[in-house]
Amino acid sequence: MEYRRLGKSGLLVSELSYGSWLTFGKQIDEALAKDCMYAAYEGGVNFFDNAEAYAEGRSEEVMGKILRNAGWSRDTLVISSKVFWGGDKPNQKGLSRKHVFEACHAALKRLHVDYLDLFFCHRPDLTTPVEETVRVMHDLIQQGKILYWGTSEWSAQEIMEAYAVARQYHLTPPTMEQPQYNMLQRAKVEGEYYKLYDVIGLGTTIWSPLASGLLTGKYNEGIPEDSRANSHDDIPWLRDIFEGEKAQPKLEKVRKLSRMANEIGISMPHLALAWCLKNPHVSTAITGASRVEQVKSNLKAIEHKDKLTVEVMEKIEDILQNKPKIPLY
Questions:
Q1: CA gyration radius, the chain
Q2: Does residue 247 lie in a domain region?
Q3: Would you tell me how many other CB atoms lie within 10 Å of the CB of residue 27?
Q4: DSSP 8-state class, residue 3
Q5: Domain tally, the chain
Q6: Any idea what DSSP says for residue 276?
Q7: Measured at the alpha carbon of residue 299, what is the angle toward residues 296 and 304, in degrees to the nearest 5?
Q8: In the 8-state DSSP scheme, what is residue 282?
Q9: What share of the chain is helix, strand, coil (3-state, %, to 5)?
Q10: pTM for the predicted model, two decimal places
Q11: What residues are paired with 206 via a beta bridge?
Q12: Residue 195 CB neighbour total at 10 angstroms
């Protein structure tokens, strides 16, 4: 495993990390969740991602129980949570001072930790003044409850507004953003955020590097019977990713990429993960897995980064045809 700085901060995170969205507290039982976390940790992963919204808090409870019993030294772990969707009643969602404060304490309790390394604003809150959110994040840092705070799926303008407010009032600015990024979803990370890496030192903890499984290649000929797209009634949107008219152009690209991966001697998932890691602005790529074998296989992608030569990367661009234009402003 190799480790990268989280933006301009001094924190080192593993290139590949492990997240529990759609799995812990929902798709897999606690015993399997434990085995997957152990496999990730033993493979060098130090960043474990979570959120209050994942399985309505059960995901953090499962991860917390594993962390409490594992006995791993806290200084070998980077643990995150996210705040926005905590419930349906007033003050149980959004980024108000009250909800951010209470969500942080609830996450600490569920995860059985004394502090969070990373705390993300899961989405922008258009009804709460950004100063209120920045100030409560700063206060939580001052109290030792969190070490770094950041955003998830915010626009570049919204991130810069938070940064400017922090600088104006001598508060702690956001350190990182958690956007979706993969071969098929590139606009924010490569285009919209282009100047933020140098201007404010933004770090990124990207999610869905395999495009919800589309970039594994296993959907090239249809949805397999054992796919999670067939097994969960509460995430029907997954089927839209893998079938239908909108999915076909993407599937055709994945078929071509799969042939290229075979030519250079790696699997399609390894090609997709290694491609993400070739971007120096990716601090870590969050992977998910419902089987120990998947965890171990994902980690092997690091071994294949050198196979993505300049020539191979150019061939990938010829297939994708979706490189974002760099803003001129």
A1: 19
A2: no
A3: 18
A4: E
A5: 1
A6: H
A7: 125
A8: -
A9: 45, 15, 40
A10: 0.93
A11: 285
A12: 14
Q: Of 315, 317, 303, which Cα lies nearest the Cα of 269?
A: 303
C-alpha 260/C-alpha 243 separation (Å) is: 22
Per-residue confidence (pLDDT) for residue 234, from 0 to 100: 55
By annotation, the residues acting in catalysis are: 54
Question: Which tokens in the block code for residue 97?
Answer: 């001072």
Q: How far is residue 210's CA from residue 207's CA, in Å, rounded to a whole number?
A: 9
Distance CA 260, CA 312 (A): 9
pLDDT at 228 exceeding the cut of 80: no
Q: In whole angstroms, what is the distance from residue 205 CA to residue 226 CA?
A: 29
59: left (phi over 0), alpha (psi -120 to 50) or beta: alpha
Q: Evaluate whether residue 44 is within a structural domain.
A: yes
Where residue 128 falls among pLDDT bands split at 50, 70, 90?
A: very high
**Amino acid residing at 328:** L
By DSSP bridging, strand 203-206 and strand 176-177 are: parallel
SS3 letters for 169-182?
A: CCCCCCCEECCECE
The whole-angstrom separation of Cα 20 and Cα 287 is 9
Specify if 221 maps to a domain. Answer: no
Asked if 179 contacts 206 with a C-beta cutoff of 8 angstroms, the reply is yes
Using CA atoms, how far residue 70 sits from 17, 33, 41, 67, 286, in Å, is 18, 12, 10, 5, 21
Reported confidence tier of residue 231, pLDDT bands at 50, 70, 90: low
> DSSP class of residue 327?
P
State the alpha helices, DSSP H only, in the chain. Answer: 30-42, 58-70, 97-111, 130-142, 156-168, 196-199, 228-231, 237-242, 247-263, 268-277, 292-299, 310-320
State the CATH number of the domain containing residue 188.
3.20.20.100
- Please check whether residue 117 is in contact with residue 149, taking contact to mean a CB–CB distance below 8 angstroms: no
Is residue 222 in a domain?
no
Tokens of 188: 């924010």
Torsion sign across C-alpha atoms 21, 177, 124, 188: negative
Cα–Cα dist 202/197, whole Å: 5
- Tell me which residue range forms the domain holding 193: 3-210+279-306
pLDDT tens, residue by residue, 34-80: 999 999 999 999 999 999 999 999 999 999 999 999 999 999 999 99
